[in-house]
Amino acid sequence: MFDDRSPIYHQIAESIKNDILSGELGADEQVMSTNQYAAYYRINPATAAKGFQQLVDEGVLYKRRGIGMFVSPDARDMLLAQRREHFFADVVEPMVAEARVIGIPLDDVVARIHSLKAEESA
Amino acid sequence: MSGIEIQNLTVRYPGDVTAIDDLTLKLEGGKIYGLLGRNGSGKTTLMSLIAAYRRVTEGTILVDGQEPFENEELTQHICLVRDSGDVVVDGDSVKGTLRRARRFRPYWDEEFAQRLLDTFQLPSKRGVAKLSRGQKSALGITVGLASRAPLTMLDEAYLGMDAPSRYAFYDILLEDYIENPRTIILSTHLIEEVGRLFEQVVIIDRGRLVVHDDTDSLRMRGAAVVGPAVAVDDFTTGMTILGEQRLGGTKSVTVYGEIDPDARAVAADWGLELSPVALQDLFVHLTKGDPA
């Protein structure tokens, strides 16, 4: 589940964000408690709490005192906007750079995108 | 509860051996600590002193503000399970071992102890001498956890246990810690297996403190810089280099220390890849040198 590439708390936050993006966690839905999460994934509860706190700070989750943590109503829209903003810088530009390095003409890349688009609308 | 303050602790053994060398360390109560060090680094000596098995002669150790040695009230609240068998004794039976612990341990949970015996499939009537290496360890862990001591120390408590039993141990430890928070110190060589259970890590080497930090922060303190050899060399000049590897024109240099956002931008610009280092690798780098 977790790897060594970034802090564990960060990976926890990312995985919950992914669940929200995929729709697995809906608006105002309660998320696992940090303790449940820690026990389930075999991590220190303080580390799990740090990941959840990051999401609260970012406005992705909100706390209800004595009850638990819930998905903010606008969390999904917010995350989608963030991902869209990063899409070109994180995905498209590296892809173009890689295509150049290995000698794939950009026209070929564009043609492939068009054919994928045609398949989708077929 | 059960915070530990160690000031300028030194332990010398006959023959000019310094087991602990001017160690100063403060551990807050209520966390799970990983105590890491190579063989002979002083881990066991340190835990034995905290558990009042030995008298402190140079420096001080305070547990909850008191010296543990010959402090009967305090030592009831400190439980150390170590390999050399003071909790698990050969002449005893499984049942007898639990009976002794129950008498001495004010927070003993019998139901939990029985559950642990079941989990580890320990026959309660069997003599300790007839248990396998792994079963003895499991019995030690049973006593260590069911004691619910506010300060619980497990010194390589998993020896001889197979992977499923070890994972059962980690799961139960974590679950029980969540329900009954206390200070837990685990010494281990299986860093990859248990690293994620630690809130903080303490690394000692040759009796000296090398690192005490949050586990996540420590992991982020190391980085592997990978890319074209010339650029990697340029980038890492002046940094603390823990190790390097070269494959053709590509080089990987492991550095220790924070890399600020400016430096990260430079790395990206130069086509260098920065990746965190596994806890185990950091540990190896930080403690290598002559074997003790």
TrEMBL record, chain A:
Domain (HTH gntR-type) ranges: 6-74
Gene3D superfamilies xrefs: Winged helix-like DNA-binding domain superfamily/Winged helix DNA-binding domain (1.10.10.10)
Keyword entries, A-Z: DNA-binding, Transcription, Transcription regulation
Pfam families named in the record: GntR
MF GO annotations: DNA binding; DNA-binding transcription factor activity
PROSITE patterns cross-referenced by the UniProt entry: HTH_GNTR
UniProt keyword annotation of Transport present: no
Matches recorded under InterPro entries: Tscrpt_reg_HTH_GntR, WH-like_DNA-bd_sf, WH_DNA-bd_sf
Protein name as annotated: GntR family transcriptional regulator
Lineage of the organism: Bacteria, Bacillati, Actinomycetota, Actinomycetes, Jiangellales
From TrEMBL, chain B:
Keyword Aminoacyl-tRNA synthetase: no
InterPro entries: AAA+_ATPase, ABC_transporter-like_ATP-bd, P-loop_NTPase
GO-annotated molecular function: ATP binding; ATP hydrolysis activity
Xref: SMART domains: AAA
Domain ABC transporter: from-to ranges: 4-231
Keyword set, alphabetical order: ATP-binding, Nucleotide-binding
Pfam family, one: ABC_tran
Name assigned to this protein: ABC transporter ATP-binding protein
The species this protein was found in: Jiangella ureilytica
